[in-house]
User: Which sequence fits this backbone?
C-alpha cells in the first residue's frame, strides 16, 4: 500500500503543473539559489496544506464553493502576476543582480509558500487521493501527517531535480538577448499554466 502511494504521488508530481512551471522559469531566469529558495517555500506550503488536511480543514474548503472559488481565483491571479513579473525581467543576471538575489532569497521562499497555499489542486489531492490510502480502521492524525510527510518528500525530490536541471541550462541562457527571449517564453508558459489552472479547477468534483 505504501509503495502504491509513493508511486501515485510521483506520477502526480511528474505531471506538469504550477510548481513545475514556476520553479523551471525562476531557475532559468534567476539561477540555482533562487530556485532552491523557492523549493524550500514550496515544501513548506505543501506541508501546511497537508497538516490542514489531516486536521480536516481541506475537506471543509472543498465542500464550500465560495471558499473554493476564492482560492482558485487567488491562485490563478497570483500565477498571472508571476508571469507578468517574469516578462518585465525584474530579476537581473548581472553580478549586482546576482548579489541582490542572494539577499532576497526570502522573497522566492515566500512565493513558493504562497503559490501552494493558493493552489486548490494541492488541497484536492489530500481530499480525493490521500483518503484512498488510509487504513480501513479509520484515519488518524498521525497517519495523515505521515502520508503528508511522504508526499512532501517525493514532491521536493522532483522539484530539486527540476531546479538542478534548469540550473545547468542557466549559463547557456545568460546572454542579454537570449535571456530576454527566454524570459518572454517562460512568461507566456506561466500565463498558459495560470489559464489551465483556472479552467481545470472549477470545483472539487472536476
Assistant:
Amino acid at each position: 500500500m505504501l509503495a502504491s502511494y509513493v508511486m501515485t504521488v510521483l506520477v502526480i508530481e511528474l505531471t506538469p503543473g504550477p510548481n513545475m512551471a514556476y520553479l523551471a522559469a525562476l531557475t532559468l531566469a534567476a539561477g540555482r539559489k533562487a530556485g532552491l529558495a523557492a523549493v524550500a517555500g514550496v515544501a513548506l506550503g505543501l506541508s501546511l496544506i497537508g497538516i490542514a488536511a489531516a486536521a480536516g480543514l481541506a475537506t471543509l474548503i472543498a465542500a464550500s464553493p465560495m471558499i473554493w472559488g476564492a482560492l482558485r481565483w487567488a491562485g490563478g491571479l497570483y500565477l498571472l502576476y508571476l508571469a507578468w513579473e517574469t516578462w518585465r525581467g525584474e530579476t537581473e543576471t548581472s553580478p549586482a543582480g546576482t548579489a541582490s538575489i542572494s539577499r532576497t532569497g526570502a522573497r522566492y521562499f515566500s512565493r513558493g509558500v504562497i503559490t501552494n497555499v493558493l493552489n486548490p489542486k494541492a488541497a484536492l489531492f489530500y481530499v480525493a487521493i490521500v483518503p484512498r490510502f488510509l487504513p480501513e480502521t479509520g484515519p488518524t492524525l498521525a497517519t495523515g501527517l505521515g502520508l503528508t510527510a511522504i508526499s512532501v518528500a517525493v514532491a521536493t525530490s522532483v522539484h530539486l531535480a527540476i531546479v538542478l536541471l534548469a540550473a545547468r541550462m542557466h549559463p547557456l541562457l545568460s546572454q542579454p538577448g537570449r535571456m530576454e527571449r527566454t524570459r518572454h517564453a517562460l512568461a507566456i508558459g506561466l500565463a498558459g499554466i495560470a489559464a489551465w489552472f483556472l479552467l481545470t479547477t472549477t470545483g472539487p468534483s472536476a
